[in-house]
Amino acid sequence: MAETIFSKILAGEIPADKVWDDPHCIAIRDISPQAPVHLLVIPRKPIETIDDAAPQDTALLGHLTWVAAEVARREGLGSNGYRLVWNCRDDGGQEVPHIHLHVLGGRRMKWPPG
């Protein structure tokens, strides 16, 4: 997989505002937030798109979802709610070819999303 901004953040080459760091993933504040709270949960394992996740990635994907919920609670989003978003490829809005889960909250989300 090609080097990305996320691989550079994971390697410590680019600073990021981390809100979570464990052996499987990090969660950071998005530098271009689309909501008052906008976090990204990024796995350490490089997987280009969610379509590229394999059966052996099931536990990792579950962990990423749990971390997303945990950082949302820590940010005070648990009582009013929040949105989790996976973007996949260009038409899905994926800008970085390394899977990441968006955590958005702090305001009412609209539907359809866009």
Keywords, separated by commas or semicolons:
114 residues, alpha+beta, HIT family, subunit A, 5-stranded antiparallel beta sheet, 5 strands, 20% helix
Q: Your description of this structure?
A:
- This protein is 20% helix and 23% strand.
- The model has no long low-confidence stretch (mean pLDDT 96).
- The protein contains 2 helices and 5 strands.
- It is globular and about 35 Å long.
- The chain has a 5-stranded antiparallel beta sheet, with helices on one face.
- The N and C termini lie far apart (29 Å).
- It has a single domain, classed as HIT family, subunit A.
Distance between the termini: 29 Å
Which structural class do the helices and strands define? alpha+beta
Q: For the record, what CATH class applies?
A: Alpha Beta
CATH architectural category: 2-Layer Sandwich
Counted beta strands: 5
Q: Over the alpha carbons, how many angstroms does the gyration radius reach?
A: 14 Å
Strand order of the largest sheet: 1-2-3-5-4
Low-confidence stretches: none
Which descriptor suits the 3D outline?
A: globular
Question: How would a crystallographer describe the biggest sheet?
Answer: 5 strands, antiparallel
Helix/strand order: HEEEHEE
CATH evolutionary superfamily = HIT-like
Strand fraction: 15-25%
CATH topology: HIT family, subunit A
Q: Averaged pLDDT, please?
A: 96
Helix proportion of residues, in percent? 10-25%
List the total number of helices.
Answer: 2
Determine the oligomeric state from the structure: single chain
The figure for the number of domains is 1
